[in-house]
Specification:
54% of the residues lie in helices and 7% in strands. By secondary structure, it is mainly alpha-helical. It is globular and about 65 Å long.
Length: 327
């Protein structure tokens, strides 16, 4: 009886906490008021308009739940099945054919292969089919003031979003995106939108929500600015002679292992590493692991999404789309 009472009490308290988060008026919170003060002082925003905006905020529990359990938390074999599908490959070929002119131009201008550009847009939004249904302002506000681990990051992105909206005459409450606040065909965070979006056809403004040309050019520009090496692969398969003595996996993916290091660990590759450096990647399959060496371009894609699963999905999807298109 006592155990039942304790359980019921726990459930009631849990539901109450969820309800209080959803119903709590954001403008009443000291941290929100302090944030508004900063926007007014530093960026000359209108205080009254900001207060009106924040009065609309309803902190979203689903957003917090989704950000804590992203697809990138899955093992590789499950993540692979989400993104490397016949439908996504076929639609990638269609997207490439439809946008061949701009993809060819982007590859020439920025040095990034068309297949990689297509694959990123394919993984992010399935070529624009799923750009997200979460109100961006509410989503970023939820994460900025309720995700303790990365609150400062999301506050910065919220600021960037408000600046982006002001610069482009967007209505902040109308735009929708992902559960992390990413927007448009390539799912740029607001800071990336402001820094790397390009008006690829010189129409007067970069539009990543509806314009394929701008999305294509912006993805290529982003990767180029982050150090893409033209003509270099993303990763090399690693053949392991002794899996009891492996190099550590660096989750920042900054290339650091040399050819000499690989020889010490008895690791071989299809082609010699040469003067290049690599990071060591271990991916979990159902019954074993597969091993890769991430090169500079692996690191560059990881700045777009800091998951080795994401980078490998982009790499594999790009290869399969290219092979399908050339077959």
């Amino acid at each position: 009886m006592k155990k039942s009472l304790v359980f019921v009490t726990f459930i009631v308290l849990m539901l109450a906490s969820l309800t209080s988060l959803a119903s709590y008026c954001a403008i009443e919170r000291p941290d929100v008021r302090s944030y508004i003060d900063q926007l007014v002082t530093k960026y000359s925003f209108d205080r009254k308009k900001l207060e009106q905006l924040f009065c609309t905020v309803s902190f979203n529990e689903e957003v917090i739940s989704r950000i804590q359990k992203p697809a990138e938390a899955k093992p590789w074999y499950q993540y692979y099945e989400l993104f490397i599908t016949p439908d996504r490959i076929n639609k990638g070929v269609e997207y490439w054919n439809k946008n061949e002119k701009n993809l060819t131009l982007a590859e020439k201008r920025y040095g990034v292969p068309a297949s990689i550009i297509v694959a990123i847009i394919g993984v992010e939004t399935k070529y624009g089919q799923n750009k997200g249904n979460f109100p961006v302002f509410n989503t970023l506000a939820t994460l900025a003031f309720n995700d303790g681990r990365r609150a400062s990051y999301f506050r910065s992105e919220l600021t960037q979003y408000l600046l982006l909206a002001r610069e482009n005459n967007f209505q902040p409450l109308t735009l929708k995106g992902s559960y992390a606040g990413a927007v448009g065909l390539p799912q740029f965070m607001p800071s990336s939108y402001r820094s790397y979006a390009v008006d690829f056809e010189n129409k007067g403004r970069a539009d990543l929500f509806n314009d394929d040309a701008d999305a294509i050019g912006s993805v290529a520009n982003y990767l180029n600015k982050h150090g893409w090496k033209t003509g270099e692969p993303v990763a090399l398969a690693a053949v392991i002679e002794n899996d009891e003595c492996l190099p550590p996996c660096d989750k920042k993916f900054k290339p650091h292992l040399t050819q000499e290091d690989l020889e010490k660990y008895d690791i071989s590759t299809p082609v010699p590493l040469g003067n290049r450096k690599a990071s060591f990647i271990q991916l979990e399959n159902k019954d074993d692991c597969e091993y890769w060496l991430g090169l500079q371009n692996f690191y560059v894609i990881s700045t777009y999404n800091s998951s080795d699963l994401y980078v490998m999905a982009v790499n594999v999807l790009a290869q399969k789309i290219r092979e399908k298109r050339n077959s």
